[in-house]
Design brief:
alpha+beta; Helix Hairpins; Jelly Rolls; four-stranded antiparallel β-sheet; 9 helices; 8 strands
């Protein structure tokens, strides 16, 4: 902007009628003063166009100034509108929470957990899940390709699925769901029936056994609960969120519905899962 003002001031000097009562520095300062007040649409009127050339030049500079301001205002408005949409999402849900509390009542601790969840969403500057919001706007073909691109690598982390066909991996990828947990949320408890497995994307989880207490900490890139996909089994530990944590979850029934399309592969996968379980228990 400063460079543009400099060159526009130089242009004005070239159109200035000859003057012997003024030095070059003063002439440049006056021209720069005229340029800035014209670009900023202030226009005090103390420096005016005297020739037709200056009049035409003034109109060009005015149009340039309007364009620059339009561009700046448009960018600022774009930034504010994005922030406003996230803020509006936050406040709308806080109002809904207040309405439910006043009409139906909720325990204070549950209210706090809901507020904590939306505080986290707000701090991340998105109105809901970024991924889900993007997918909701895409046609079916693009939605499928995006899901596969984002999720197939985490699926191949499961040893039993490492060498599975590409089509099977793609079908499973479309079944993954995003789940967010706040601190102290229990993902599942030891002894309950397993019906999902999870891939940890962000945050930290602790693994707890009744006999041994805390036995491990899970970090991004870890997965857990996979045996629930292959057999009817109870959870052998409790998983609790230490921080705000984001995961992909894969439902057992969705997984089995995909395997029905690949009966030959399903038997191989189940055998690999049993072998891994056997080696882990030894």
């Amino acid at each position: 902007m400063t460079l543009a003002a400099h060159w526009l001031a130089c242009g004005w000097i070239l159109l200035e009628p000859p003057r012997r009562d003024i030095d070059g520095a003063t002439l440049y300062i006056e021209a720069l003063y005229w340029t800035i007040q014209t670009l900023t649409t202030v226009g005090f009127g103390d420096y005016t166009a005297e020739t037709r050339g200056q009049m035409i030049y003034s109109m060009v500079v005015m149009m340039f100034g309007v364009g620059i301001y339009g561009w700046l205002i448009g960018n600022v408005a774009s930034i504010l509108s994005k922030r406003d949409s996230v803020e509006q999402f936050y406040h709308d849900n806080m109002e809904r929470l207040k309405t439910i509390v006043s009409n139906r009542g909720l325990p204070p601790e549950l209210q706090k957990r809901i507020r904590d969840y939306y505080d986290y969403i707000y701090s991340r500057s998105y109105s809901g899940s970024d991924e889900q919001a993007l997918l909701a706007t895409l046609p079916a073909s693009l939605k499928h390709d995006v899901q596969v691109s984002l999720k197939q690598e985490v699926i191949r982390m499961i040893p039993a699925l490492t060498e599975s066909p590409e089509n099977l991996i793609k079908d499973i990828a479309t079944e993954l769901e995003t789940e967010i947990f706040i601190p102290n949320d229990t993902i599942f408890e030891e002894g309950e029936e397993g019906d999902k497995m999870y891939f940890l994307l962000s945050g930290e989880l602790e693994v707890i056994r009744q006999k041994d207490g805390k036995i491990a900490t899970l970090k991004p890139g870890d997965f857990f609960g996979e045996m629930a996909l292959f057999e009817q089994t109870q959870r052998n530990a409790t998983i609790r969120s230490l921080t705000y944590s984001e995961t992909y979850s894969l439902d057992k029934y969705a997984f089995n519905s995909v395997l029905l399309k690949y009966p030959g592969v399903a038997a191989i996968i189940e055998q690999k899962a049993k072998e891994r379980k056997s080696s882990t228990n030894q």
